[in-house]
Predict the structure of bis(5'-nucleosyl)-tetraphosphatase (symmetrical).
Amino acid sequence: MMSNHYTHAEREALMQKVQMRMSNKRFQHVLGVEKTAVALAEIYGASPIKASIAALTHDYAKERSDDEFKQVIRQNGFDLDLLHWHNAIWHGIVGADFVQRELLIDDEEILQAIRLHTTGAADMSLLDKIIYVADYIEPGRDFPGVEEAREIALVDLDQAVAFETKHTLLHLINQEAVIYPKTIETYNYWVANFRRELP
Ligand code: GDP
Ligand code: FE
Ligand code: FE
């Protein structure tokens, strides 16, 4: 489904399934991510169809209960270390599994973009970067630095990934939040590593 063609009706049907699973506020965020992701896909030469589908589904599982996530982690072969984490980490990595089973989306590029949308990764495809950045800069976001992130995203997607990663990590550290190791990997690759490569 939704891989060889993508009609207006298919997009509408997908939107409706997503909308049923979340608050209106979150759904408006999803639509903002979609608009942003499609625009970035057009700038950077990715598939706008995949950008639309990945954006519409990236937070699909975010309002599921912790118990449902834990059950899926145990039953569907996920690393059991995930049981020690929480919704912020689960809704992408494990959320992709809900998208695949319930929305019948089997496109591996889309599923991977969903998996990586919160933490990023050292190794990210163009679509992964687009969803990661669109989630951060969509028009509904309002936090110090978002305007700068939007400007960077229009000219250099990799730099936007680095900017977002650094600022998310700074935010998490200020909150004294536990940092998921993948988030550190993302930082090491996109921020620390890139800086060393500068003249
Ligand atoms: P949203 O789902 O659209 O709200 O955005 P995200 O999926 O990007 O982020 C969800 C939450 O996870 C945000 O509050 C992030 O700050 C938080 N987050 C991102 N990385 C980490 C991490 O490594 N550890 C923890 N504890 N939270 C994180
Ligand atoms: Fe999310
Ligand atoms: Fe999101």
DSSP finds eleven helices and no strands in the chain. The radius of gyration is 16 Å. The CA atoms of residues 172 and 179 lie 7 Å apart. The chain has a mean pLDDT of 96.
